[in-house]
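We emphasize that the prediction below concerns an isolated chain of 65 residues; any contacts that depend on oligomerization or on bound cofactors are therefore not represented. The input was used exactly as deposited, without trimming of termini.
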Amino acid sequence: MVGTLEKHREGILGFWRFGGATNAAMEGFNNKVRTMLRQAYGYRDDEYMMLKIFDLPNRKLQVVV
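Result of the prediction step, given as a token string:
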């Protein structure tokens, strides 16, 4: 356990140094982008894809299984 704590010491201290800030919001957004691209099966136009990515915070994705 001590070895694991020493290996991750900088990340643990960084969490407390920056007031409990994490990258959870960024990870969640990246997951939304991956889900959108997987459901879309690719876009021919890169500009349209970027517009869809910028619009993601305004939309709710439906997960199709």
